[in-house]
Amino acid sequence: MQNKQDRLDRMKELVELLNQAGKAYYQEDREIMSNYEYDALYDELRALEEETETIFSNSPTVNVGYESLDELPKEAHGSPMLSLDKTKDVEGMRSFMGNHRTLLSWKMDGLTIVLTYRDGQLYKAVTRGNGVVGEVVTNNARKFVNLPLRIPYKGELVLRGEAIITYSDFARINEEIEDVDAKYKNPRNLCSGSVRQLNNEITAGRNVRFYAFALVSAQDMDFENSRQVQMDWLASQGFQIVEYRVVTAASLDEAMEYFSYQVAQNDFPSDGLVAIYDDIAYGESLGSTSKFPRNAFAFKWADEIRETTLKEMEWSASRTGLINPVAIFEPVELEGTTVSRASVHNISIVKELKLGIGDKIEVYKANMIIPQIARNLTESGNLEIPTECPVCQGPTKIKQENDVESLYCINGECPAKKIKAFTLFVSRDAMNIDGLSEASLEKFIAKGFLKDFGDLYELSRYENEIVEMEGFGRKSYDNLMANIEKSRKTTLPRVLYSLGILNIGLANAKLICKAFDYDVDQIRKADAEDVSAIDGIGPVIARSLIEYFADPEHERMLNHLLTHLEIEQVVIQDKQIFAGLNFVITGSVNHFANRAQIKELIESKGGKVTGSVTSKTNYLINNDTTSNSSKNKKAKELGIPIISEETLIAMYEE
Description:
By secondary structure, this protein is of the alpha+beta class. The chain folds into six domains: 4-52; 74-300, D-amino Acid Aminotransferase, Chain A, domain 1 (2-Layer Sandwich), CATH 3.30.470; 306-409, CATH 2.40.50.140; 415-487, 5' to 3' exonuclease, C-terminal subdomain (DNA polymerase, domain 1); 492-567, DNA polymerase, domain 1 (Orthogonal Bundle); 582-653, BRCT domain (Rossmann fold, 3-Layer(aba) Sandwich). Helix 1 (4-27) runs antiparallel to helix 2 and helix 12 (415-425) packs across helix 13.
């Protein structure tokens, strides 16, 4: 008979197989297994779920709907989450261990989450925050791909773990983003943003994983005074636990040799190791300092640092006009590879490091992956910040935002901006025009064929010249024309995204288009208040949109483009009784499963649901119409009706 762990492993295997089959069938119109085989595997999974009393969040036997929130509620932790004292010296770690059995595990580089289970169900998930107060992210935790939503243990369980995104998923997500400026900097930042989304549909697409690293409390359970027993019990409940080894001072070197080798093979980010005494009572008896618990210690990898010479600073222009400094230095060996370049990110860092050509600098790989400058030994500070764009020789300007200085090209006709803008425009998620590489676009722009996006649909005027161009020919030209013709039929979100408006990706473009009934004139005439009131948008994106359409040249370009496009009309078949009305929802619900269900109903009837009460709000929905909540107070100040669910139901049933 299979033991518990074997059954859990089989369940994970079945979930993956069934999800692959479902995706192939429903999204890709192909079958990778017969219905008979699928049903047999599905029944096997359901039986194992009943047997183990465990259900994983990505199991095809459950369908946890997507939900959007107005904001992430804050919540204080039951006990402060302290940081760990740390060392980069193995002997320092050995000294901490003394003669105690110790668990040594990965220090994962993600977002720490505290989970609470009650009656065998996931009850709550809260981020670490500042260690005292975190944000409630329960909706998003339900979308972590390996997290059990139901476990066999029925008492109250509190545990801590790390939410992470693997390097391979990070690379996949970044690869799908055509716009270089919009790519994520590292897996940790991507994970943090994914876990803290207001709409958990976005979290679901990011493949966030959870690794348990500590049990805080489990009602009426005896763990024999052992952290190892706790960890193995968590694994038996269906949690993926962080890899660990039980070590002593004598066996530490062997374990360190393993971890030092394995860190370069792992698919997940790790910035060190954590050591914690196996003896729970002894560890807790030590108490803590004002900053650190005394029962645990962190080991940080000693970065491999090499000294080299800064040869030059390369200035790389992007479609937004941002000019990024990239340090070019004498090649050095770091973590097994030859490195000669490192991004310096912005002017503030250039100034802080006091960089100059010829300076002796120390370089390392952050998390053993990304080349960085550690420090400048010379600090000459003689590096000249370009006053001209490296591409167009137009004027540059240093702009400061959130205390960070960055360099921008302010020439609106800069070819670099145009090339990058057209590259985004033809990309897969935008207008999806195959056959137009960045190199081809650069040639067309240089020859004057392309001045704005609408010109792409008039390239046939230059047929003879294009056919004769190097790298083209009759067949390539005909294929290009066919692809351009195919792209004329498109959707409004794709068009909005393709314009390259700062901060507006395809997901945001979809939200904006939906909020304005897929009407391009409504979108370009909207004011900041209208746009920032859209769930998931906010003031920064709203400002980008408003500023873009405030430019008459952008209006002209869009009008020219629209003459060449056939935009798919979104037909809303249901009776639009709430058309033109703006609602805000707050408080608990009685007649619906959740607030997302109310939002879905209102939008299906033509209304809009926003996150905050403004002068444009028509109704505030709150079952406690007499409460003194901030939204109720605001609605009363503005004379906006506060209605209950019953009133809303009566409105749409009339």
